[in-house]
C-alpha cells in the first residue's frame, strides 16, 4: 500500500496528535484528526509548558515548526525560586542568556501554532469517538457517539487520560495517586498584585512543606496560574460546593495555616473559580500486545504525574510515529518499530516521575520542604 493511499486517523487534537498530523503531512501522507471539542476555542487549554530540547523540541523540529516555536517561547520563564513555608528562599535558578534548554510557552499558543500549520480541514471538530473496533482484515472501525462510523488502516489514540481508543489495546484504567492540585489564576498581575508578581519573577515560584505545595507560574500576557497541591482523598471536597469560590478559598486557606501570609495571598486574591485537578496515572509499566491497525501516543499510552514530562513525550511520540510510517511501507512494521522505542522509554519515565511525585508530595506531616535535587 502506498504511503499516500493509507487511511490514517488520529483521535484527539492535543499536542501529540497534532505533531503527528503535521509531521505526516510534511512527508506527503494524508491524515484526518477527530476532536470531540466543537471548536478550537471550546475551552481553556491550560497553563504554560517547558518544552525540552531532548523531547518536545525534537518533535517540533521534525514537524518543521521549531523556529516558529522559539519565536513564541519565553526562555526567561525557566527561572525558578524554591522556598519553604516561611517564604525563605532556598534555591534560585536563573537561566543563562541564550539558554533554550526548556523555554516556556503557553499550551494554547503552542496548540494554535500546530493547528494553523495543518492543511485546512484536517481536524474534524465535534467528532466524539465512542470506541475503536479492530476488524479481521487488519483495519479499524471508529464509531462516533453521534452514530456514524468510518474505517481506517491505522487509528492513533491521542485522546488523553480517558482515551476511548485505548480499550482496543489495553484494559488499563487511570488510578488516583492521592495527590490533588487546585488551580487558581490571576489576570493583570503586575499592575494589580505587584508583590505576588515579584515572588513569581519571570518564571515560577514553588513553596512547600511536607505534602503541602504552592506553585505560582507565569503565563503569557501578564497572567499567573497558581497550583495548590496536597495529599488527600479523591472526595477531599465532600461537603464543599466546588462552584462556591469563597467556600473553597476558606478550606484551602485552612489547610495552609502556618504558611507565610504573602504566600497565602496566592489563595486569597485570585480571579474566578478554583479548579479541582486530581492527579491520575496509568499503571507502570503499561504495555499491550500488538493489534493490527491501532496504537497510542501521549497520555493515552503513558499518563504520568504532571512534572514537566507528559506533553514533551507526547510530541516526541507523535513525531516518531509519523517518521516510522514515512520510512516503512508496511503499517504494522512501522507501528512495531515505533512501539519498540516508545514503550520502554515511557515506562522508564513513568517510574521516574512516580518517584519524583512521591518525593515532592510525601505522605507525611513533615514541615521540611524536601525539594529533590532534580529541581536544581
From TrEMBL:
It is found in: Cytoplasm. It comes from the Bacteria. Its EC number is 1.14.13.-. Its cofactor is FAD. InterPro entries: FAD-bd, FAD/NAD-bd_sf, TetX_monooxygenase. It catalyses: a tetracycline + NADPH + O2 + H(+) = an 11a-hydroxytetracycline + NADP(+) + H2O. Signal peptide: none annotated. This is Flavin-dependent monooxygenase. FAD binds at residues 50, 107, 299. An FAD-requiring monooxygenase active on some tetracycline antibiotic derivatives, which leads to their inactivation. Hydroxylates carbon 11a of tetracycline and some analogs. Keywords: Cytoplasm, FAD, Flavoprotein, Monooxygenase, NADP, Nucleotide-binding, Oxidoreductase. GO terms for molecular function: monooxygenase activity. It is an enzyme of class 1 (oxidoreductase). It comes from Streptomyces yunnanensis. Residues 8-188, 293-326 form the FAD-binding domain. Its main location: cytoplasm. Monomer. NADPH binds at residue 43. PANTHER family: FAD DEPENDENT OXIDOREDUCTASE DOMAIN-CONTAINING PROTEIN, MONOOXYGENASE ASQM-RELATED. Belongs to the aromatic-ring hydroxylase family. TetX subfamily. It holds the Pfam family FAD_binding_3. Consists of an N-terminal FAD-binding domain with a Rossman fold and a C-terminal substrate-binding domain.
